[in-house]
Amino acid sequence: MVDTRVERSVTLPPDPSSPAVARQLLREVLTECGRDHWRDAAELALSELTTNSVLHAHSHMIVRIRCGPEELRVEVEDTSQTIPQQRSYGQISTTGRGLALVAAVASEHGFFRTTAGKIVWFALGVDPVEAAEDVAALLDAWGDDDPLERPPHSADIRHVTLAGFPPTLWLAAVEMHDALLREMALDRAGRNLPTSDLAAADRARFAIRVALDHALADERVAARARSALPAGHPAPLDELPPVLDLEVPVTADLAADAALLQDVLDEANRLAGDGRLLTRPALPEIIALRDWAAEQIISSHSGQAAMPWPGADAEHFAQQLNEVAREIDYDVRSVIDGPRAAIVIDSGNRVLGISHELAAQIGWDADELVGRRLVAIVPPRLREAHVAGFTRHLSTGQAHALRVDLQLPVLRADGSELNCDFWIDADRSESGQAVYIAYVSPAEPTPSDG
């Protein structure tokens, strides 16, 4: 075995092609060092760190590789001081698993801030596979969900208030945005297209995220003070507040970035609808929330009056189909003509079919309900929670409501509510499109008409 020490470095632009260049340099170093058996694990980890830098740092990066007889150490330096954070996304999510992969294959890993940004690193030892035995412990080396640093005060910054901001719905939207922007970057790389607008969109999204992190941290501090809990005791804020007035520091550049956020995500939605991205298109409520937030930043920064979030319970959401909804080649009749009361929807939350028995129980005509979105039978106070949960499932694969007993109220056509027992299952059409089947039965007697 060759006993050689090799050190190389390269400066790369924030371009989707940069991870491939970094991997090529890594392969050359490992061959020269006589450590080709580390190649698979090292390439995987390096790909994740460089891709994260491209997608989120939007700056040139320096990749440093040092290989010796007993250890390979790789560093990726950029000018962003945002620390890497592990996200709790699902197993079939198209995003959010990168840091877990690095933790699984590396002997050691971590990060540290520099005066100009940060350095994220990993190391491989003689037997890197052993490191995978306790991935949960290894993930502790990454950052947690502590608030990001507050932006500095500046005369160029105008503070814009997003009134009535819904944290739960926005956090679900963020997971969808993460997946869409990542897929867009890969699509652009494959077509050799520029990514400057993706960087601008990410900056706008990130500014809102920083503001929300601090607002939620402040909520926890206030909740602790109200409860008079001793220091070190877990904060009493177990659930997110339904709404808050979110103050976002905005510069003129950020107002321009917010407009690009709308444009980029609209393009991503079209590509997702055409099947060119792994991610599904966003639901109308998620698009409306993104547009509202961006437009408030744009208009309020120019001195116009702020408009509060109108909510996701408007009637047009029940009637509106996703612009990119496609026909589903699924045998709905086999379900709705079966022995159990059921409703079938697609990944756009659109009702594909409902059994006449169930329609009668909730006071709807079955033909009138088909083609509307499921939120038509969700009580208005629960619609944002429903959309948030469904969006999180679409973008991350989390499926907490599938194949478990549920009891939920259903909105009847006359505006009254009926508590029902649910069992929700997932299926696929002949072409592979997702459909969801909810078997429903009243949990209490249906009130008589008399």
Structural write-up:
The chain has 450 residues and is an alpha+beta fold. The protein has 3 domains: 6-139, Histidine kinase-like ATPase, C-terminal domain (Heat Shock Protein 90, 2-Layer Sandwich), CATH 3.30.565.10; 158-311, no CATH class; 333-442, Beta-Lactamase (2-Layer Sandwich). It is built from 13 helices and 12 strands. It has helices at 18-33, 39-57, 98-105, 135-139, 167-190, 196-227, 252-273, 284-301, 315-319, 333-336, 356-361, 366-369, 383-396, and strands at residues 6-12, 61-67, 72-78, 108-113, 118-124, 158-165, 244-250, 342-346, 351-354, 405-411, 417-428, 434-442. Strands 1-2-3-5-4 form a 5-stranded antiparallel β-sheet, covered by helices on one side. Strands 9-8-12-11-10 form a 5-stranded antiparallel β-sheet. Strand 10 (405-411) and strand 11 form a beta hairpin. Helix 1 runs antiparallel to helix 2 (39-57), helix 2 runs antiparallel to helix 3 and helix 5 packs across helix 7 (252-273). Residues 86-97 and 128-147 have low confidence and may be disordered.
- How many helices? The count is 13
Q: Describe the strand arrangement of the main beta sheet, using strand numbers.
A: 1-2-3-5-4
* Sheet of most strands: 5 strands, antiparallel
Could you list the spans in which at least 5 consecutive residues all have pLDDT below 50? 86-97, 128-147
Order of helices and strands: EHHEEHEEHEHHEHHHHEEHHHEEE
Structurally, how many domains make up the residues?
A: 3
Radius of gyration from CA coordinates: 25 Å
Shape: globular
Helix content: 25-40%
The number of strands is 12
> In percent terms, what proportion of residues is strand?
15-25%
